[in-house]
């Protein structure tokens, strides 16, 4: 371990994840839904990501918001080298990456920010780094600015803390050459142990479930999750106390699925929590009820509360679209309270309407009023559909053309890369200013369209030359005929379902 890393693993690079909750417009929507006005210019905000890994999320957001300025740091130079490569090839001129530590970043020549975001960082670094992060937010966040922060949460982790201890102990004793292999060894040792007569596992079924849950996890993710010197799941109240030092206070959950209480708590608990005035205490108690292991929260430097009527006015002026293939929308979902079936007479017409294209919320409300559905139900449905990733709010129409040039360049970079890797499973939308999930195979279908090549030959040629095969229903397909037949099925589905959704989002 190097001296500059203060116990954080730098000998294994991280995964290439994209986290859609960090999309500025979604953060604004989350803020509006909680009754607070987001304070920034749509066209020219400033955005900073701390501990950005390979910087994929910030690069994508920079492409989708070309008039705004993006900054990000990560002290692992391997991560920042990859991020700079993305910037260069995708032709992004509105983003700067720094291989600074949080301490050093504090002294970099930076503007103040409308958004400071950090995902998967705060509970994996030592107190010294957390203090630097607090100081950074205190110094660099504008009044009215938002912080997005995610972290491992207590009490959700409580029963599983010993599993991290086992992971560290076994990995340290493994003779494998690399940390991903050591983690794999450790995992098998833990699995063996759980199959023996070990009282701990009998008393803690959640620990046994954890063993099943993490099976097959990305081997570059696991060392970052479990093998850093610092690893501290935290109660919300501790996070709130530490961030209060940075002059920020709690605004609410970043995800609509966490904002909508009826998905997580029964009615009497909702009433009980509503009666608690002390917010950190209330949130700690909520976390006992839901037993969440990971929280994604928004904090703000000063809250600007809106009266209900003004909140509705702001929301009504937002446009939404269906962001996925219509056929993939399911009305049945599992939430913390259990499996719920969404009301067909409310949800189906909204989804059908938004499948036709961008629609103002005021228009959706009017359309549903005709069907006898009251406006509060429509607002709630939009929040839920957005939380599920089915719908997305849209940036203003006038800005889309300018965004499209840079999203096209970024998307070309991603699509060309998918010839060799399955790393970035997202494209940038000029309409949402954020990410859209697209699998590697669908990216390759797009590549074939653009280059007017025969798609199945192109893809099977690439896969077979790289020694790869397709997987169908969890089973690896052996023969070329099986692979080609499955690719043909997927291609038909791509044309029927995926392409119309991409068109709606301004991609292609
Ligand atoms: C678990 S990863 C999360 C990466 C990225 N935010 C994501 O979610 O994909 C934590 C990141 O924080 C970076 N990091 C840890 N300590 C740091 C420090 N003191 N200064 C800057 N970056 C740090 C690591 O290199 C790593 O990329």
Task: Summarize this structure as a short list of keywords or feature phrases.
508 residues; alpha/beta; Arc Repressor Mutant, subunit A; seven-stranded mixed beta sheet; three-stranded antiparallel beta sheet; 16 strands; 15% strand
List the helices and strands and how they pair.
Layout: H1 24-33, E1 46-50, H2 56-64, E2 69-73, H3 77-89, E3 95-98, H4 102-105, E4 113-118, H5 127-140, E5 141-152, H6 161-173, H7 179-194, H8 199-203, H9 205-214, H10 221-226, H11 236-244, E6 249-253, H12 256-259, H13 267-274, H14 279-290, E7 294-300, H15 308-316, E8 319-322, E9 332-335, E10 338-341, H16 344-355, E11 359-360, H17 361-369, H18 375-387, E12 391-394, H19 400-417, E13 426-429, E14 434-437, H20 440-451, H21 455-465, E15 471-472, E16 475-476, H22 480-504
Parallel strand pairs: 1-2, 1-4, 2-3, 4-5
Antiparallel strand pairs: 5-7, 6-7, 8-11, 8-12, 9-10, 13-14, 15-16
Helix pairs in contact: 2-19, 6-7, 11-14, 19-20, 20-21, 21-22
Instruction: Return residue spans where pLDDT drops below 50 for at least 5 consecutive residues.
Output: none
Radius of gyration: 23 Å
Can you count the helices? 22
Structural class: alpha/beta
What does this structure look like?
The chain is α/β, with parallel strands linked by helices and 508 residues long. Among the domains are: 158-226, no CATH class; 316-397, Arc Repressor Mutant, subunit A (Orthogonal Bundle); 398-504, no CATH class. Helices cover 48% and strands 15% of the residues. The protein contains 22 helices and 16 strands. The protein has helices at residues 24-33, 56-64, 77-89, 102-105, 127-140, 161-173, 179-194, 199-203, 205-214, 221-226, 236-244, 256-259, 267-274, 279-290, 308-316, 344-355, 361-369, 375-387, 400-417, 440-451, 455-465, 480-504, and strands at residues 46-50, 69-73, 95-98, 113-118, 141-152, 249-253, 294-300, 319-322, 332-335, 338-341, 359-360, 391-394, 426-429, 434-437, 471-472, 475-476. A seven-stranded mixed beta sheet has the order 3-2-1-4-5-7-6. The protein has a three-stranded antiparallel beta sheet with strand order 11-8-12. Strands 9-10 form a two-stranded antiparallel ribbon. Helix 2 (56-64) packs antiparallel against helix 19. The two termini are 45 Å apart. The structure holds S-adenosylmethionine. S-adenosylmethionine binds at residues 8, 14, 17, 51-53, 73-76, 79, 101-102, 119-121, 124-125, 129, 224.
